[in-house]
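Quick look at the format.
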Amino acid sequence: MSAGTDKYSPMTPEQREKWLKTRLFPVELWRSGPDSTPLVCPMPDLAQMRTYAEEVPPHIRASGWYATRRRYEQQSIYADNFSGMGRQAIASVISAGRYSGPLAEFMAAACPRTVLRLLDRIDHLERELAAAKEGTAP
């Protein structure tokens, strides 16, 4: 684990179920000190990731996303809507601190099109691995 990530833990099945139903961040107590509740990461599973990516409108999903220069303490992420309206704002990242530039660039790179390609690759590799285990690989 990298520095600072040892306070985080994966969601429990109960927390995941609550998060999926309510969309509330699953933290019972949020304070500092030895009696604080560790933060959990609401990581969606692969099927949820595919659903989220596929639910983005196709014209936005097909676009290459990009991050703009920092301006007035924020950086925006845009996509082209390919319907004559030009670029569409997708998200904005506050530029306070040194993390915001890499965060905006990462968000732009992790657009739905990229996520769907990665998920397709994972599916392909998992099928190949399963076939190799069964001895049916080409």
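Next, a different chain entirely:
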Amino acid sequence: MYTYEKKDKQGILKIKISKENWEKAVNEVYEKTKGKFTVQGFRKGKAPKKVIEQTYGDTVFFDDAFENVINEEYNKFLTENKEVVPAGYPNVKMDSFTVDKGIEATLTFDLMPEVKLGNFEGLKSKKKVVKISDAQIDAEIEREREKHARFVEEDKVCENGDFATIDFSGSVDGVKFDGGTAEDYRLELGSHTFIEGFEEQVVGMKKGESKDINVKFPDNYGAENLSGKDAVFAVTVKKVEKKVLPEVNDKFVSDTTEFETLEEYKKSIKEGLTKAEEDKAERDYEVALIDEVVDRCSLELPASMVDHEVEHMVEDFEHRLSHQGLKMTDYLAYIGKTLEEFKKERRDDAEKNVKTRLVLQKIISKNNIVATSEELDAKIAEYAKHYGIELDELKKNLSPNDFAYFENDIVMTKLLDFIKSKNK
């Protein structure tokens, strides 16, 4: 049994659970969880409810039973009142609980905000005109030259751009520190791989030469025990190599690529760069259009929706860090921020994400933008052809989430086409 009222953009749902329904919920939890309890003299799952309560406490089943009956009533309410759309999880407060009368509880939740769409006629976003310069083509060729560079050992002093193979051992106040010693380390001079001042002092040394290099660790260095400290590195140069790049000509092209002439190669690079730049320009254009559409709409977001989005963003970031073998706590220590400061910095982006999502959903709903069965079949067939998979075999192995992915892809494409049609 429930009563509902809307107050200040919030829903307030009062739920009453009868004594009989409460007892039923407790018994259901007992039947479901009794196998987890160990009671002396009984096999697992065979101890009577009263005995488990005497052993583990009278309220041992209450938490799960309370959650179950509240969720059941809450879902029943939402099913019977589809016009009520919560913006997040409800806050649950138990008002009273007695053996004779059952439970009374209040659920308070933010309501989904009303989205007021603006006038989309005459959008003004512009798509960048792509023009590939000779410098961009030359840069691509230069990267290919770097891949095929040769390294020639020379009896010479080290210069920027050379590769010096060195032994080094670092110390602070005469004491060596972890990670400060290595042998046969191949260092590209001028790459700024080491702390400031180190590579500059290797320049001018020659093979077989040893000397002490004095440097100072930055104040914000990752290792706290070294931050701001003066250090001495004993360095020995064991080899000096000069990088030699191949000459760019038809021979270089035919030896290293699928093309025969430099002219053909440059043409291919230009086509590839043009395609990549045009794809990026199209994505940027779509983002600009969506931003313009969202700016023309009005809605007031409940703080709970933004809070939830921030938590989701942080969890996603933490997950990506884990793939790099990093922990969130270590990352925060490295950038010198607390978790709350990190979350606060993401709040504006979270608000923009939620607002954009709600506006696009409203446009989709208002304009009845859907994926037809024919479009879905065509999209799946296109995917199967692209990856060389038999269509029937692919369809047989697709999960509901896979179908939802294809459907969403179609809807978003049609949505963007709809928005683009409003751009003047």
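The chain has three domains: 2-110, 150-244, 262-420.

See the schema section for token definitions.
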